[in-house]
Amino acid sequence: MYIRTSLPVFVLLILVLTGCDRCNPDPPVAAPGTAQMNVELSWGDEAYSLEQVEIDHNGYPVRLDNLQLYMAPVAFRSEGEWTEGADVSLIDFSVHAQHITSTLEAGTYDAVRFGMGLPPEINTDIDPASYPNSHPLSVIGSAGMFWTWSSGYIFVKYEGKYALETGTQLFEPVSYHCGTDASYRMVTIELTEPFVVAAEETASLTLTLDAAKALIGEGDAIDLAVDPVTHNGQGDSLGGRMMDLLVDAWKISVE
Amino acid sequence: MAGKRLQIGLYSLALLVLTGCERCQDDELPCATPNCSPAATPYSLEIPAFFPPMDIPEDNPLTVEGIELGRMLFWEKDLSADGSMSCGSCHLPSAGFSDPNPYSTGITGAQGIRNAMAIINIGWSPTFFWDGRAVTLEEQILEPVSHPDEMALPWSEAVERLQNSEDYTARFAVAFGDDVITPERTTQAIAQFLRTMVSANSKFDQWRRGETFLTDAEFAGYEIFLREGGDPETTPGGEFGGDCFHCHGEAGLQFSDYLFRNNGLDSTFAADPGHALVTGNPLDSGKFKTPTLRNIALTGPYMHDGRFQTLEEVIDHYNSGGVPSTTVDPFMKYSSGGLQLSSMQKAQLTAFLHTLTDTSFTTNPAFQDPH
User: CB neighbours of A136 closer than 8 A, spacing ≥ 6?
Assistant: First the structure.
């Protein structure tokens, strides 16, 4: 009798307990830490802010008005293993205090790697309208970086003005829009000192882009007066050249 | 007896488990926001195909009653000092909810300094006004009622007039939970109404949905729209296109990047510094918000100051490359001979722009004057 009346309660209890498993927290794991990568801009060795006039390698006064780029993904190496952090970040140097936050296992890291641009699987074939508006690939979040359905997103926008002589107004436009799958580049930087991420704490490092090196590097140089514009169209190698130059334009320091 | 105790114990345990489990549910509390009215009917906005999601403020959810109240207020002439103007007076349906005059004339006869922007798919815009001085729709709506050159009615008086209306107090009570009328609630209701003003049935939309065809001229214009501008001999990467897509891109089918640009209209900006008035940065001088191209054939005159009467004049301006200045956008081809579009190409581009006209939007009974 008691067994007969208790049986439904048993069954109910088992069902409830099974259902409730879904809302129980996962078993405890080691608490992660946070890596905050501050992204800054320089012209040569000096800190640079957009709209400052500097002199390029040809002696032309140049002023950058807009410098934006996608970084996707960011990864950190520890004991030979790479761990991916932030997946897609849009860096806009017109906004101060740009940084990329990654959640990592606590540990000591000795290298940083990041994609410059977007990997092919997210560059094309995904409708920007499918992202929430706060996402860096969304219609609004991409802030003018979406190109077309077929070519995807602009990876790097490097825009400004220059003049052929100092002391004159800067009227000549400079507009480098680098993109398409073939222009995606991976940058790997070995850290000169260990980057320690402690559990539940934030560790910072600073990644600095030398904007002057976008125009000159080992084995190549871009002359603003000869090649002031690229849209990475067919047969146009300028975008790829700038991406190659940008690979060597980064340095990093652990704070 | 022991069995009975066991049964009670099991029941108690089951109750405890069930109670505990309830804490894991993700149920939202009804009416958790300050202006939420339990009497109002939630309104589910349909997002058209290919459109991005619309961000609706948590403190101003759409309701059937809020939207209808907003529509009443949008067309309410009693929100102007002399009772002669409503918001709709400068945002005429026949002009794509913009003003067919270069500058709108307020109740005193004073004129504004910029062309009234078209209201269309405004719920997706992250900034408002030509210079971007408002970052929410509610903030934007707050300005014209009390502006001395527009409706010129102090908000305190506007609120008093609404409070003296039994109809409005009843409507506010249903929409916001009580009959307190404030400037904020008034702008919230109008904002709700404006967020429902969605256009997605132009010929271009129908073509994108596979429901119709573009003519040869329209399709050729679309291709020009999407091609890089300039002669490749003088403009690296040039494709003899219109270069329109950079700023009026089709991502999300809104035809605006919502950014601020100087499109080479002037070489000096003392008359209207534009976005620089908001940022204080001289290098934002002459920059204005990229407007949507939806219903562009209906919303002339064009540019922030309404200087161009026709789409042909607009295209001629871009074809010329514009005039140089320290802040002119690098997309403008002022230093390389302009776009160099032929007369036929310009006509094709114009034909394409006409495919963005949606008269089912401008004639939608839900958006017309209810008074």
Answer: A70, A88, A89, A90, A142
Query: Is A82 at the interface with chain B, CB within 8 A?
Result: no
Separation CA B30–CA B48 (nearest Å): 27
- Which tens digit of pLDDT belongs to each residue from B271-281? 999 999 999 99
Q: What is the pTM of this model?
A: 0.87
Q: Is the ipTM of this complex over 0.95?
A: no
Find the distance separating the first CA and the last CA of chain B, reported in whole Å. Answer: 76
- Amino acid identity at B150: E
pLDDT, tens digit, for every residue of B210-220?
Answer: 999 999 999 99
Per CB-CB distance under 8 Å, the chain A contacts of B124 are 139-140
**Spatial separation of the C-alpha atoms in residues A174 and A160, rounded to whole Å:** 5
Interface A-B, measured as beta-carbon pairs within 8 A, has a size of 120
B285, B276 Cβ separation under 8 angstroms: yes
Nearest-neighbour CA in chain A from B167: distance (Å): 38
Q: d(Cα B331, Cα B339) in Å, to the nearest integer? A: 10
Residue with tokens 């980064």: A250
- The partner residues of A84 in beta bridges, in order of sequence, read A75
Element (H, E) at B219: helix B216-226
Please name each of the domains of chain B with its CATH number: 64-199 (1.10.760.10), 203-355 (1.10.760.10)
Contact present, A247 and A240 (Cβ < 8 Å): no
Task: Tell me the nearest-neighbour CA distance from A208 into chain B, angstroms.
Answer: 24
